[in-house]
């Protein structure tokens, strides 16, 4: 019969607990670095995709940033700008949701279905017109209105999922960034 025995010296228990406490602190710090590094990757990808997306509206500027004002170890990536939702989810009934993210918006009155935000113009299968100059990089199915000079006719904006692609990049990089942060080969 084999016998395995372990001797535990309780006089060193406080020292062991102190070592565990300092090890835990190191792990928490590394996790915060990991979260920050992944968020920076997501922000970089999302900002680049917002900047490159075709958008026919006048107020197209979207700023993507990290908000760390929440609970410890929690970061939020925020896309701020009037065009953010329209670029991310698209508009118009001819540009329906054609990717995996949800395309409903939430406003003060609740959930708004795709193409029905604002004045409900995007709900028309004939498209709609709005005043303005043609942008350098207009979306497909957008052209100057020949009926009203100085107006633009469009069928809507296809989705350009900048935030979603930022998320996908973060997910794809978790393992490699964790190896760097924690020092694994």
Describe the structure concisely for a colleague:
The chain is of the alpha+beta class and 185 residues long. The chain has 3 helices and 7 strands.
Give a description of the structure.
This protein is an alpha+beta fold. It has 3 helices and 7 strands. The strands form 3 sheets. The protein has a 3-stranded antiparallel beta sheet with strand order 5-7-6, with no helix packed on it. Strands 1-2 form a two-stranded antiparallel ribbon. A two-stranded antiparallel sheet has the order 3-4. Helix 1 packs antiparallel against helix 3. The radius of gyration is 25 Å and the shape is elongated. The model has no long low-confidence stretch (mean pLDDT 80).
Strand order of the largest sheet: 5-7-6
Number of contiguous helices: 3
Protein structure class = alpha+beta
Rg from alpha-carbon coordinates: 25 Å
- Tally of separate domains: 1
The helix-strand sequence is HEEHEEEEEH
Summarize the amount of helix as a percent range.
25-40%
* Unreliable stretches covering 5 or more consecutive residues: none
Largest sheet: 3 strands, antiparallel
Outline, from the CA principal axes?
elongated
Mean pLDDT: 80
| Oligomer state of the chains in this structure | single chain
Secondary-structure map:
Layout: H1 13-52, E1 63-67, E2 76-80, H2 84-89, E3 105-107, E4 110-112, E5 128-131, E6 142-144, E7 151-154, H3 162-182
Antiparallel strand pairs: 1-2, 3-4, 5-7, 6-7
């Amino acid at each position: 019969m084999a016998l395995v025995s372990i001797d535990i010296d309780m006089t060193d228990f406080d020292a062991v607990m102190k070592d565990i406490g300092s090890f835990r602190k190191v792990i928490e710090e590394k996790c915060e670095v990991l979260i920050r590094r992944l968020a920076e990757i997501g922000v970089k990808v999302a900002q680049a995709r917002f900047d490159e997306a075709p958008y026919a509206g006048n107020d197209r500027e979207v700023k993507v940033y990290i908000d760390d004002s929440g609970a410890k170890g929690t970061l939020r990536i925020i896309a701020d700008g009037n065009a953010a939702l329209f670029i991310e989810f698209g508009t118009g009934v001819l540009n329906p949701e054609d990717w995996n993210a949800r395309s409903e918006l939430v406003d003060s009155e609740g959930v708004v279905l795709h193409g029905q935000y604002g004045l409900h113009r995007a709900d028309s299968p004939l498209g709609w017109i709005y005043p303005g100059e043609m942008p350098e990089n207009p979306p497909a199915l957008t052209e100057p209105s020949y009926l009203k000079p100085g107006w633009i006719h469009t069928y809507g904006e296809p989705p350009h999922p900048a935030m979603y692609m930022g998320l996908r990049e973060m997910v794809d990089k978790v393992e490699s960034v964790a190896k760097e942060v924690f020092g694994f080969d």
